[in-house]
Structures are given as structure tokens and as C-alpha cells.
Amino acid sequence: MSILIIQLPARPRLGTEPDGVEKAPATGPREYAYVLSPDGLSQGRQGRCVAAMLPRADSVVAVMAPQDISWHRLTLPKAPASRLRAALAGLLEEAVLDDTDDLHLALSPQAKAGQPCWVAACDHTWLTSQLMALEKAQLRVDRVVPGLAPDEPATAFFHEVEGGDTDPAAEHGAGVLLSWSTSDGVSTWPLQGSLARSLLPEPLPPQTRVLATPPVASPAERWLGHAVTVQTPSEHMLLAARSLWNVQQFELTPRSKGLNSLRDQWRRWMGPQWRPARMGLMALVAVQVLGLNLWAWHQERELKNKQDQLASLRAWTLFATHYFEL
Q1: Residue 39 contacts by C-beta under 8 Å, 6 or more apart in sequence?
Q2: What is the CB neighbour count within 10 angstroms for residue 140?
Q3: N or C: which end of the chain has fewer CB within 10 A?
């Protein structure tokens, strides 16, 4: 089953010119980095283009930038599904700066009531506009996943500021972000300045993965003091798409109707998890067809035997009749 993985552009934020004057985010046709995987494991076609030119696939996964999600650890309240979102908003009211009505919330996979879980929060209007833009291009997103999620082993991911002027020769990390992911959460800091240096553990925990996108690998190595593993955007998106997360929850849960519902059911049936069932069904059909053929062959043999017996009986009847007439 082919999977189209799309990197959502980072949420626009106001920048500042050297003279202190704010500059608005650049406008123009929005382009998306993408990778088309034949099976969700290997890389296929990849590139960057506008939404209308993106290739088609059986499933579409959108990846969010690490800096566009905030993470909150709490105990999942025991509330009915219709009131769960409101209950989460009440618990997060003191933990977030934005109005909870302006946020989109999503629960970690397999979250259970009464147990600790992660809640991902992002700007609701921005995420909705991203999904609507893709929907307008006839691309129906099946899952939205975070670029990084709380997990082990710890991961330090150096990446460029989207739309920024990253100078590979810069010594102070201008235009470079550091996203730090552990089982305790995910945070993103600018490399320039002292914040990242003070918050990044020293020394790094054992088994820490240190990754960097190609444009910022050199400044990241200079800042860190040792080598990093270069991870291309395609590799990053492919790894993120394997996550069990799906940010499309509550009011953004895809609602399948009519042909969309049939398409979703068919896609699930053709997925790798249903392959054993498909093979079993095919074997059952093959056995049934073989059995029907054998039964038909047996019935044909029985009919021929009866026809031969009937012909023989008629011959004997004619012979006996002729004999007695003599």
C-alpha cells in the first residue's frame, strides 16, 4: 500500500529585521516537501512542489514540525467521549498561555482513563487551514503525526528555521533550531544564544541520538563539539510516519461517508495487517473452487455410468423382445 508523506510547513511567526522592524512571513504558492513510499518502510519518489502537483497514493500522512506542538503530561480524566475534550481543556487551562478554545488537543495512542498520558496541543486555526489546503487539492489526509514525540532513546535534532537564512559557515547557530526529545517531553530552542546550551543536558544521556538535517550539520557539529548523524528530510518524514500518533482527534477526526467510507474499508483490507486474512480467504476460495470442480467431475462420471447402464438395459430389452418373438 503506497503512502504519501507530506511535511506541513511550520506555523508562520513574525520575524525581525536587523533594525528591529518586524517582517511578515513570506507569501506565495505554498510548497510541500514530500516522500512517496511504496510500503511505509522504504523511500521512493521524493521532492518538493505545490499541493496540486503532489503524487497520489493509497494513504496520506502529514508530518508537523517539532516546534508547532506543545506537550503536556496529565492523568486522563474519566469522562464520556462527548465531554472529554472539555475536560482536557479544563486541566490544561493553567498550563498553557493560549486560550484553550484556540488550541487543538490530541491524546497519546492507547491512552486509558485514570492513567497518565501525553496531550499534544497546537494552534487549531493553523492546523485546520493546513488540512483544508490539502483537501482543496483533492488530498484527504488520513493521519497527522508529530515530527518528534516524547519517547526513548533521547533525541537531539538540529534543523533549520523554515524560510530563514541558514549560513553553514555561521559559528553561533544563526537560523538553526534544536529539538530535544525524551520520555519527559519535547522542546525546541534556537541554537543562537545561551538558552539551548543551558537546557541541553551535559553530558548527554547514554544512547542519545544526535541528528541534523544536511544544511545545518556543520554548524551543529561545531556547536556540539562532536559529529552528528545527518538525516535527510525524507528519512525524517518516513520515520515520523511510523509513529502510532494521530493528531486528528476530536473535532478533526476524519468522518467517512459514502464512497470515502468504502474506500477506507478497502484500504484497510488491502493493508499489510490484513494480509494473512487475505491469503486465508484466497486459499479458502481456491479449495472451494477445486472442490466444486471435483464434485462436478464426479457427478459427470456418475451420469455417464447411468447413461451407459441405461443404454445397456435398452439393448438387452430389444434382444429379449426379439428372442421371444422368434
Answers
A1: 1, 2, 3, 272
A2: 15
A3: C
Peptide bond into 203 cis (omega under 30): yes
- Least confident segment among 116-125, 228-237, 277-286: 277-286
pLDDT digits (tens, 9 = 90+) for 160-202: 987 544 454 455 556 899 999 999 999 999 998 899 999 999 8
C-alpha closest to that of 250 among 105, 117, 116: 105
Query: Which residues, other chains included, contact 206 with Cβ-Cβ below 8 Å and sequence gap of 6+?
Result: none
Half-sphere exposure of 129 (CA within 13 A, CB side): 10
- Say if residues 144 and 248 touch (Cβ distance below 8 Å): yes
In whole angstroms, what is the distance from residue 243 CA to residue 82 CA? 26
pLDDT, residue 269, reads: 63
Place of cell 516546534: 67
Pairing of strands 103-107, 116-123: antiparallel
Rounded to the nearest angstrom, the gap between the alpha carbon of residue 242 and the centroid of all alpha carbons in its chain is 6
Q: What angle do CA 133, 125, 85 make, to 5 degrees?
A: 120
